[in-house]
Design a protein that fits this description.
Residues 1-20 form the signal peptide. This is ABC transporter substrate-binding protein. Keywords: Signal. With 335 residues, the chain is α/β, with parallel strands linked by helices. Strands 9, 10, 11, 12, 13 and 14 form a six-stranded mixed beta sheet that branches. It is 33% helix and 20% strand. The longest helix is centred in the middle third of the chain and has 22 residues, at 182-203. The chain has helices at 63-71, 91-97, 111-116, 139-144, 167-178, 182-203, 227-235, 259-265, 277-290, 295-298, 316-328; strands at residues 17-20, 27-31, 39-44, 47-52, 58-60, 78-81, 121-124, 148-151, 210-217, 220-224, 239-240, 254-257, 269-274, 302-306. The chain is globular and about 60 Å long. The chain contains eleven helices and 14 strands. Helix 1 (63-71) links the parallel strand 5 and strand 6. Mean pLDDT is 88; it is low at 1-36. The protein has two domains: 54-193, 3-Layer(aba) Sandwich (Rossmann fold); 206-333, Rossmann fold (3-Layer(aba) Sandwich).
Length: 335
């Protein structure tokens, strides 16, 4: 196998006393000098972000981040939404987002487009959205403009190989502190945890099917062997046929493979993420044409996720775990 990089798709001084956060070892500090606004300092992707007062002008740098901000009740603080063409917002949120300015559609916003809406806080799924070489605003440029930039914990470069579904809970706790909405964040976290607990209870003691998660682009077949996607399979009760101990995934969570490698693994179930209906059909056609004798294909045991379900920092990570579990154990989810 040859590895092939694919995308699925504010430094400031620390203040106050550090409070340990769950998840990726994030530290948060709250403090207030006499007569000064409360500041919150968070360690995010190895950087310290200080937010002086509750942000008033927020941009979600992907629909998944915009969705989370909306579900936290922050619609009146969002001044921009980005990459809107990459994933639709759910119907119940579309009306809330209708009047929010769109700063980009198919890619992260340019530095100029982002700064034009004058944000004081931006929330991104990965650090890619801050790549200056691509014309995006870098962390340093945003800090110079007085903008705090937060990356979803699971999208931090040092977490991409080891990220888990639980990274979402770190983000919820951090956002609750930053926006002074700890109760709302805790409520979303409790709902998400209840879904994970329900899945775990339903599949307890059942025999684990073998699972491969793949991504198909044209005639290129990529396997997923680490990161949040790997953890989703495990949380859903699947036995991953590819994993981080395999040499192909030693340094990157995905690797291009030959169809013969997937045929040799012969998974009971195949999971893949699709960008849209056309991509889903193209992937199904590729599997049927190239790997008709693989058990998952022959028995039509294929679970399809939305591409946005695997974005770091997405509530859809939780929905994806349940969707995968339903595909692996349909009997366990019959009401």
């Amino acid at each position: 196998m040859n590895t092939r990089p694919i995308r699925f798709a504010a430094a400031a001084a620390a203040v106050g006393t550090a409070i340990a956060l769950s998840g990726c070892g994030s530290d948060v500090a709250d403090s207030a000098d006499a007569g000064a606004d409360t500041a919150v300092t968070i360690e995010n992707c190895g950087r310290e972000i200080t937010v002086d007062g509750v942000p008033e002008a927020v941009v979600g740098l992907s629909p998944t981040q915009t969705e989370l901000l909306l579900r936290l009740g922050l619609a009146d603080r969002i001044v921009g939404q980005a990459q809107t063409a990459t994933a639709p917002l759910s119907e119940d949120l579309a009306a809330l987002a209708a009047d929010i300015p769109v700063v980009s559609e198919d890619a992260p916003p340019s530095r100029e487009a982002l700064l034009d809406v004058e944000p004081d806080f931006v929330y991104s799924p990965t650090d890619y959205e801050f790549t200056a070489e691509q014309g995006f605003a870098s962390h340093e440029q945003l800090a110079d403009a007085g903008v705090a930039a937060y990356t979803a914990t699971g999208g931090c470069p040092d977490r991409r190989m080891e990220g888990t579904v639980d990274d979402l809970f770190t983000d919820l706790e951090n956002l609750g502190l930053i926006f002074d909405i700890e109760d709302e964040a805790a409520a979303l976290a409790a709902e998400a945890q209840a879904t994970l607990d329900d899945v775990e209870a339903r599949i307890e003691g059942l025999e684990k099917p073998t699972v491969a998660q793949v991504y198909v682009e044209g005639d290129a077949l990529t396997a997923i062997g680490a990161g949040i996607e790997y953890d989703m399979i495990a949380r859903a009760g699947g036995e991953n046929v590819f994993g981080p101990d395999d040499p192909e995934f030693a340094s990157f969570f995905a690797a291009q493979i030959n169809p013969e490698a997937l045929a040799a693994a012969d998974p009971d179930v195949i999971v893949f993420a699709a960008a849209d209906a056309a991509h889903e059909q193209a992937t199904r056609d590729y599997l049927a044409r190239t790997l008709p004798e693989v058990s998952a294909v022959a028995n039509d045991r294929i679970v399809v996720l939305s591409g946005s379900d695997v974005y770091p920092g997405s509530l859809s990570n939780i929905d994806a775990v349940r969707a995968i579990a339903e595909g692996l154990y349909p009997e366990a989810f019959q009401e």
